[in-house]
Design goal:
Helix 8 packs antiparallel against helix 9, helix 10 (234-247) runs antiparallel to helix 11 and helix 12 runs antiparallel to helix 13. Strands 3-2-1-4 form a 4-stranded antiparallel beta sheet, with helices on one face. 60% of the residues lie in helices and 7% in strands. The chain has helices at residues 7-18, 24-30, 37-57, 74-88, 99-107, 118-131, 182-196, 200-213, 218-230, 234-247, 252-264, 268-281, 286-312; strands at 136-140, 145-151, 154-158, 175-178. It has 2 domains: 7-183, C8orf32 fold; 217-312, Serine Threonine Protein Phosphatase 5, Tetratricopeptide repeat, CATH 1.25.40.10.
């Protein structure tokens, strides 16, 4: 990915940071890499096509007899939309996270074509749900993303990677965010893709923008910390890891990353505490176990080196 962003992307980033309302489908399509109004309009029409197919399935249900369905129908509409998407593409979980790619996969005539990640699937459901007038927000964990539907005082969590995920139970460490912050999740995923392909400057820019859009997003804080480690800004990285832990006290990866940063500074006892905290949050977290073993080896080598030095001059 090029570091150069389109005028549309710069405008949307500026509006999101300022709190200006931006149509979600347009923002997500721009972050998909679409640069012209013609490209964006084309994919908005494709989203309309998916919405039209869903409406056709609902013709006999009486759910859209009103121009604006009343709130008591929202749960039924949300469930019908969830089931429609799963029935139309039963192998939904895949690698796409950008809305344009997810829309293409959803409309692919091959019913066995996978559609997207939790970020991509949540993006598609969100833009369709807004067309239905649903009151949706995000339910965000360190490594997963759900939709949250509000109907009066009731909340219903929706996991789009699970065919039984409507009204699901989520684990610890999840936080609710408004729907526009979904753009931060997309930017974070885009950063991960750039990082995996060695485009570290692009990854750093995406993580920075994700944090700017949603300063409370622990995963983006953690990933920005990793980029700061690459830049030898260890203190800055530890600030990001510490903030990620404050935002999500069960974030094993952030504990482990902070421990490695402290170990580089020779703060071994504090590093050990962080590795143990990572294991306390997730006893099966292999990276923390490996870090503890490496720390034991480093301390053992330093003790032996010290004893050898004392013996040499005794």
């Amino acid at each position: 990915m090029s570091l150069q962003t389109s005028d549309h992307e710069e405008t949307i980033l500026r509006n999101l940071k300022d709190g200006t309302v931006v149509p979600l489908d347009r923002a997500l399509l721009v972050f998909s890499g679409l640069k012209t109004d013609e490209e964006i309009g084309f994919y908005q029409h494709r989203i309309d096509e998916i919405w039209g197919r869903f409406l056709k399935k609902c013709e006999t249900k009486g759910l859209f007899d009103h121009a604006k369905p009343p709130s008591y129908l929202h749960q039924e509409i949300a469930k019908r939309l969830f089931e429609y998407l799963w029935n139309s593409k039963p192998k939904r979980f895949g690698e796409y996270f950008l809305l344009a790619d997810v829309v293409d996969a959803q409309l692919d005539t091959n019913v066995h074509h996978s559609v997207g990640t939790c970020v991509g699937l949540t993006s598609l459901y969100s833009v369709l749900g807004l067309r239905a007038g649903l009151n949706l927000s995000l339910w965000v964990g360190s490594d997963h993303l759900l939709s949250r539907l509000r109907v009066g005082q009731q909340t219903i969590d929706i996991d789009h990677t699970d065919p039984l995920g409507f009204d699901c139970r989520s684990g610890e460490g999840f936080r609710e965010f408004p729907l526009p912050t979904l753009t931060a999740n997309v930017l974070n995923s885009r950063g991960l893709r750039s990082e995996a392909s060695g485009e570290f400057a692009a990854a750093k820019a995406d993580y920075q923008n994700a944090v700017s859009v949603n300063p409370e997003y622990a995963n983006a804080r953690n990933n920005r910390g990793n980029m700061r480690i690459r830049d030898e800004d260890i203190e800055g990285a530890m600030e990001d890891y510490t903030e990620a832990i404050r935002l999500d006290s069960c974030f094993s990866e952030a504990y482990c990353n902070r421990g490695m940063a402290k170990q580089r500074l020779g703060r071994y006892d504090e590093a050990r505490q962080d590795y143990n905290m990572a294991l306390s949050s997730n006893p099966e977290y292999g990276d923390a176990l490996e870090c503890l073993l490496l720390l034991d080896a480093v301390e053992h080598d330093e003790i032996e080196t010290g004893e050898a030095g004392r013996g040499l001059f005794s």
